[in-house]
């Protein structure tokens, strides 16, 4: 009786990223069946992994949470009704497994009787038949060496399925988990999956999706009226429902051209002066009017008629938090941020703008290159890629000219937390050509890479041509000019 686990849940159990597991699959070191991994195969490939008491895994997870700059995920139980339904579903699986084991026991009892009968009818084969009977009984009575580890793994998976359930989005194939009391929409946004939504409180119907399989439960009322044809088709509002079991939904994942421009009143959460040349502006959006955007995009800001346009430095997975890096210069908006802007001040935000965004369907190794405060959109892209676990590997090169590597510790924490992330700080004083050479020195062939670069136009041109000479596809180049 085989037990199969989805790749995303296996990643959580063994403390590896999905991209790392996919590398093992491509190398033929890990076998999958319809995208899932069988229990015995998992125990074979990861013989040294401990379940439940693995303190090092928890340590790495804590580093990740801090390094990503996201909120610490609450490991809260779902509400009692959802918890009861999840336990009931788990109980049904247990009952089915127990019934099957009882059936197997009866079959084995019948087989034993038949072997005894054959031995009595044919004394010449009695010894061989009894040897088979004894061998079968010994095999059933003696638990295999991996039984205890398998039992611990199944117990851990069962706890995971009570605490969080998996959502698969069709046709894109993206996955995320619903934890605690989150709605499907809240969980998707925290995972960085850009699904369509509007008011997020049940009025507009923009977050309507089709439930393909699995069970959901309504946890928030909604004023939007679903048509009878919608109900028959399995339509639900993501902002009002949570998942009870693993589910599959049919929904479109938004691209840069799919997200409408929004004008949102925000408040200043903090003005963080990184040094005398740069400030990190932290804004908070209203609960009912979060900004829909993709990592790498920009917004226009307005305070009392003073306007400025800046790249978003935070990840779409950071809920209502928007971070922007403001360089001190002679523009009126910049002067106002450094001299007059205070906590709780109103800031009107319009956006998103631009198409310098993460390719959410890419699984290729990725290079990120930032020049000075071109790090802002690159930071957003990296955190989004981490959240989605889309990149096979990530290399960050940050070139400092007028500004220091002002979040150097953050970049180094990413390197410490992730096996597939590397960071290198460079200096513009070495010259653009030398920096291009330093970046490409680590990569002889860019034929299967994505490259995201934000910096001055002349540097981007040199990097682009050099990367193309190393085999980078035009589809793999993503550049953003930063003035």
Uncertain stretches:
52-60, 67-75
Overall average residue pLDDT: 87
Helices, by number, come to: 14
Kindly give the count of domains: 5
Oligomer: single chain
- Please write the CATH class name of the largest domain: Alpha Beta
| Number of DSSP strand runs | 20
Strand content: 15-25%
Strands ordered across the widest β-sheet: 13-12-15-10-11-14
Q: What is the overall silhouette?
A: globular
End-to-end distance: 62 Å
What structural class do the secondary elements suggest?
alpha/beta
Name given to the CATH homologous superfamily of the largest domain: Nucleotide-binding domain of ferredoxin-NADP reductase (FNR) module
- Looking at the structure, the CATH topology of the largest domain is Rossmann fold
* Integer-rounded radius of gyration: 27 Å
Characterize the biggest β-sheet: 6 strands, antiparallel
What proportion of the residues is helical, as a percent range? 25-40%
Describe the structure.
With 483 residues, the protein is of the alpha/beta class. It contains 14 helices and 20 strands. It has 5 domains: 4-65, no CATH class; 80-159; 161-250, Roll (Ubiquitin-like (UB roll)); 262-353, Beta Barrel (Elongation Factor Tu (Ef-tu), domain 3); 366-481, Rossmann fold (3-Layer(aba) Sandwich). The strands form 5 sheets. The chain has a 6-stranded antiparallel beta sheet, with helices on one face. The longest helix is centred in the first third of the chain and has 42 residues, at 80-121. The termini are far apart.
């Amino acid at each position: 009786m085989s037990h199969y686990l989805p790749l995303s849940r296996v990643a959580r159990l063994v403390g590896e990223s999905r991209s790392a597991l996919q590398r093992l699959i491509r190398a033929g070191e890990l076998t999958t069946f319809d995208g899932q991994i069988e229990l015995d195969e998992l125990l074979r490939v990861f013989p040294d992994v401990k379940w439940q008491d693995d303190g090092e895994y928890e340590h790495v997870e804590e580093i990740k949470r801090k390094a990503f700059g996201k909120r610490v995920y609450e490991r809260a139980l779902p509400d009692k009704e959802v918890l009861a339904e999840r336990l009931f579903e788990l109980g049904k699986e247990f009952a089915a497994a127990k019934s099957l084991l009882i059936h197997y026991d009866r079959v084995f009892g019948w087989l034993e009787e038949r072997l005894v009968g054959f031995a009595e009818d044919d004394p010449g084969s009695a010894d061989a038949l009894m040897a088979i009977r004894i061998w079968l009984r010994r095999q059933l009575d003696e638990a295999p060496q991996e039984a205890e580890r398998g039992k611990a793994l199944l117990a851990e998976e069962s706890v995971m399925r009570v605490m969080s359930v998996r959502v698969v989005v069709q046709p894109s194939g993206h996955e995320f988990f619903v934890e605690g009391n989150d709605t499907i929409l809240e969980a998707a946004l925290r995972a960085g999956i850009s699904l369509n939504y509007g008011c997020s409180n049940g009025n507009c119907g923009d977050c309507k999706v089709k439930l393909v399989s699995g069970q959901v439960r309504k946890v928030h009322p909604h004023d939007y009226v679903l048509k009878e044809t919608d109900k028959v088709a399995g339509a639900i509002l993501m902002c009002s429902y949570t998942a009870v079991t693993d589910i599959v939904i049919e929904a479109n994942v938004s691209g840069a051209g799919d997200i409408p421009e929004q004008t949102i009143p925000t408040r200043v959460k903090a003005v963080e002066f990184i040094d005398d040349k740069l400030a990190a502006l932290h804004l908070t959006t209203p609960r009912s009017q979060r900004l829909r955007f993709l990592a790498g995009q920009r917004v226009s800001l307005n305070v009392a008629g003073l306007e400025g346009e800046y790249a978003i430095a935070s990840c779409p997975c950071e809920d209502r938090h928007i971070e922007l890096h403001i360089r001190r210069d002679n523009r009126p908006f910049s002067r106002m941020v450094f001299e007059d802007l205070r906590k709780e001040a109103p800031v009107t935000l319009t956006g998103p703008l631009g198409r310098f965004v993460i390719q959410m369907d890419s699984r290729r190794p990725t290079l990120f290159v930032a020049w000075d405060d071109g790090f802002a959109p690159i930071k957003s892209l990296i955190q989004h890629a981490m959240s989605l676990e889309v990149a096979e590997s990530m290399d960050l090169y940050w070139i400092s000219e007028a500004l220091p590597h002002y979040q150097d510790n953050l970049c180094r924490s990413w390197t410490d937390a992730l096996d597939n992330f590397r960071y290198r700080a460079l200096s513009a004083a070495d010259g653009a050509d030398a920096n291009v050479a330093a970046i490409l020195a680590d990569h002889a062939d860019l034929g299967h890479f994505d490259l995201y670069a934000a910096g001055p136009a002349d540097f981007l041109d040199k990097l682009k041509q050099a990367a193309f000479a190393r085999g980078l596809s035009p589809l793999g180049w993503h550049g953003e000019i930063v003035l």
